[in-house]
Amino acid sequence: MKFRALLAILLTLTLLLSACTPPTKMVNGIRDPLVFATYGTGTSTYADLAAVTDAVSTDTDARLRIITSDTAIGRLAPMKAGIAQMGRLGDEYIFGFEGQNEFASENWGPQDLRVVWAPLSPHSLLTRKSDGIKTPADLKGKKIPNVTANPSVNGKIEAYLAYAGLTLDDVELVDVSYSEQPEALESGRIDTLYQQVYGSSLFELESKLDVSWIELDPKGKEGIERVHELAPQLNILPFEDAPGQREGASTHGFVYTLPIATYANASEDEVHRLVSSMASTFPKFESSTLNTPRWNPGDVETIPRVIPFHPGTVAFLKESGQWTDEAQKRNDKLIERGEQLRAEWQKFKETKPDKDDIPKKWSEWKIAADLEKA
Fold first, then answer.
1. How far is CA 102 from CA 93, 97, 110, 111, in A?
2. Residue 374 counted as domain residue
3. Burial bucket for residue 268 (CB in 10 Å: 0-12, 13-18, 19+)
4. What would the pLDDT profile of 19-34 be if each residue is shown by its tens digit?
5. Pairing state of beta strands 64-68 and 34-38?
6. Residue 228 and residue 19: Cα distance in Å, rounded?
7. Based on the structure, what is the number of domains in the chain?
8. Does residue 92 sit in the same domain as residue 177?
9. Where is the signal peptide (predicted)?
C-alpha cells in the first residue's frame, strides 16, 4: 500500500511536470533536463552532487536538477517511474539490484541497475564527546538510531557493532529519520549517529555540542572480517577535517562508494558524455566541498564490486586506460547474475507468496538457486 501511494504521487508529479515543463531535449549529448535523486540538502552527499552537476551543466549547457529523499525507496522510485534518470544512492543500488530489504516486495524485485561513477566517501559514527564513547565496544547498552526506511545506514551501523562482536540485541534501538539524527544526538534521544562525515548539519551540530568520532582499528583483523561478512564493499580508511577533529588529526571509519547509478537501458552515449564531463570538469569542482577531491577520476572505483558498470562508463574507462581484464570479467559475472536474479524472481512470483513472507522466502529461494552471494 505504501508503494502504491508513493507511485500514485510520483505519477501525478510526472503529469504535472509534463504539463508545465518543456519536452526533454538533448543538449551537447546530455538530456535537458537531466534529473538526479539523492539524499537531503543538509547532507554532504547532496553538496557533492550539487557541485558536480553545476560544473557539468556549465560544461554542457544542459540543465541538471536534483530531487531529494531521506529513504531508499524515495530515491529509487523516481528513477523507476522515469521522473529521475540518475541517482547518487546509498546501498539501495545494491538492494535494488538484488531485490533485497524493501525491494523484496511484489512491486519491486531485482532491478536492472548499473553504476555510472563511483567516488568514495567517508562515513562514521559520531557521538557526544562527554559520553566517552570511543570504540564500537563502548556502544553496548547505548541508544542507537534505527533509521526509518534506510536499510543502507542501518546495515552500516550493524557492521560497526559487528566489528566489536556486538549485535542489535546488545543496544537500544531508537526510530529516527536520517535527517533527524543530529537533533536527536543533541537532545539525547540517541547516543550516536551515522552519516557521511562532512554534512553541513554535522558542522552546525559541532557549533553547539562537543562531538567525537568512534575509531576503528585498521589492524583489527577479526573485527574487519566480521564487518566484511555483512558488507564486503566497506573499506576501513582514515578521514580528516570533519566536525570534532583537531587540525591534522584523522579517524578511521568506513570509506565506500555512494555511486551515481542508473538503469541499464540508459543511453550509452549519454552516460559516456556525462562521465566524460564529470572527469574533465573535476578541476573546477575539486575544492567545492571537503569530499569532492575524492571525485578525482584517478581515485574513483574502477572495478565493479556488487553491481555492473554501465557500458557508457566502461567505454570511458577503456579510453582512459583504467579498465582491466579483471574488471571486465567481474562486470560480465555481475551482468549474468542480474539476469539470473530477474529470471528467478519471475519464477518466484509464480508461487504467489504472501506479501509479508516475500523477503524471507525470496532469500531462501536465492540460496536454493545458488544466488545467495555474488
1. 12, 12, 11, 12
2. no
3. middle
4. 444 567 999 999 999 9
5. parallel
6. 48
7. 2
8. no
9. 1-19
Which residue in this structure is represented by grid cell 542489535?
168
- Centre a 10 Å sphere on the Cβ of residue 283 and count the other Cβ atoms it contains: 9
| 272 and 307 share one domain | yes
Rounded Cα–Cα distance for residues 221 and 206 (Å): 32
Position 14 scores a pLDDT of 46
Domain encompassing residue 237 = 122-256
Task: Indicate whether 6 pLDDT > 80.
Answer: no
Q: Does the reported pTM lie above 0.85?
A: yes
Helix residue spans in the chain (DSSP H): 2-20, 44-60, 72-81, 92-98, 151-163, 181-187, 200-206, 221-230, 268-280, 282-285, 311-319, 325-349, 358-368
Model pLDDT for residues 235-258, shown as the tens digit of each residue? 999 999 999 999 999 999 999 999
Comparing 3-7, 88-92, 319-323, 333-337, the range with the smallest average pLDDT is: 3-7
Cell of 341: 536474479
Question: What are residue 251's DSSP bridge partners?
Answer: 239
d(CA 11, CA 13): 5
